Amino acid sequence: MTLIIYNLGMVDNYPFHLFNGFPNLYGFSGLDRRSVEREEPNWKQKLLNDPNTRFVLYWRSKSLISESTLGYPSATKLKLEEIPPNLKVTDQNVFLGQKNGLWYVGIDISSVDEFDLNKGLPEDSSFRNLREVGTILDRFDACILSYCRAIFYWQQNNKFCGVCGSKTAISKAGHQIDCIKINCGKPVFPRTDPAVIMLVYDGDRILLGRQSVWKKGMYSTLAGFLEPGETLEEAVAREVFEEANIDVEDVSYHSSQPWPFPSSIMLGFYARARSTDIYRNDEEVEDVQWFTRDEVSQFSKLGKSLPRKDSIARCLIEDWLRN
Ligand SMILES: [Zn+2]
């Protein structure tokens, strides 16, 4: 309960009016992305000279995190003069936006050797995976680290042009990548992979499944990636049929969540079951079952667990339990 209150701090600065429910983590940051300013060619010099700029560092899928004496980690936000000389600002960066008078810039220092990594950084900081600390970060910190992670994954995976194979260069404050070959010059923009995730219900029970790679006893909602030429509603129906052989109807939107592991947007739905006999068509799914409201409420007594607290899957289930 303490963590939920912590995440809801500074409510006025977050656009929670956009969603009538508990807002999913990694979203609703209230960050002003300044998409016009970031088009300016000299944005980096301007921000480097601004004392209100703060830098967040990213190294090989990990973010720089500070540990407070109270035990709450936070994103380490450095002033320019606090960045050690061996970690100087490179072209692998992204202007994230502005909030409360501060400008935020992410820097990817993945090319730095592990041996040199921590030289000169604050003593209470270390590089940690957002997967480990996401649930205990302040909402804003979780959002900017998630945003960085998604952008840098995209930058890392577009070092060569998909049309002609030439090298590429980052532009537009980290939000565009261009082929450097003069007679090609193909631009590429950040990509997010849409995935549907759905809570299927049948009266007072819901359909949950598990994959063999998950921790023992954990059950979650079904999910899968949208395919080209498919509506979101069709993707929901297809995935549920593939994974459980259940027909659904009345597919209704719940909420969405950026999910930077590595680059998805999760689109959450509820769907009513039209059939109830389960048959698993997909080898990836180890088990699928109907669980009653009482059973889900007492999962821990049954040796089972729900998905992680920062996930939209957990939100879909808990919202259903409350209603
Ligand atoms: Zn090209």
Spatial gap, N to C terminus: 19 Å
Q: Describe the main β-sheet briefly.
A: 6 strands, mixed
> How many structural domains does the protein architecture include?
2
Total count of strands: 15
**Multimerization status:** single chain
Ligand names = zinc ion
Helix content: 10-25%
Shape: globular
Q: Total helix count?
A: 7
Radius of gyration: 22 Å
What does this structure look like?
The protein is α+β, with helices and mostly antiparallel strands. The chain is built from seven helices and 15 strands. The strands form three sheets. Strands 1, 2, 3, 4, 5 and 6 form a six-stranded mixed sheet that branches. Strands 10, 11, 12, 13, 14 and 15 form a six-stranded mixed sheet that branches. A three-stranded antiparallel sheet has the order 7-8-9, with no helix packed on it. It has helices at residues 2-7, 43-48, 130-133, 139-156, 232-244, 293-297, 312-322, and strands at residues 53-59, 62-67, 73-75, 93-99, 102-108, 125-129, 168-171, 176-179, 187-188, 193-202, 205-211, 222-225, 248-259, 264-273, 285-292. Strand 1 and strand 2 form a beta hairpin. 20% of the residues lie in helices and 30% in strands. The site of zinc ion (ZN) has 8 residues, from loops.
Topology at a glance:
Layout: H1 2-7, H2 43-48, E1 53-59, E2 62-67, E3 73-75, E4 93-99, E5 102-108, E6 125-129, H3 130-133, H4 139-156, E7 168-171, E8 176-179, E9 187-188, E10 193-202, E11 205-211, E12 222-225, H5 232-244, E13 248-259, E14 264-273, E15 285-292, H6 293-297, H7 312-322
Parallel strand pairs: 1-5, 10-14
Antiparallel strand pairs: 1-2, 2-3, 2-6, 4-5, 7-8, 8-9, 10-11, 10-12, 11-15, 13-14
The chain binds zinc ion.
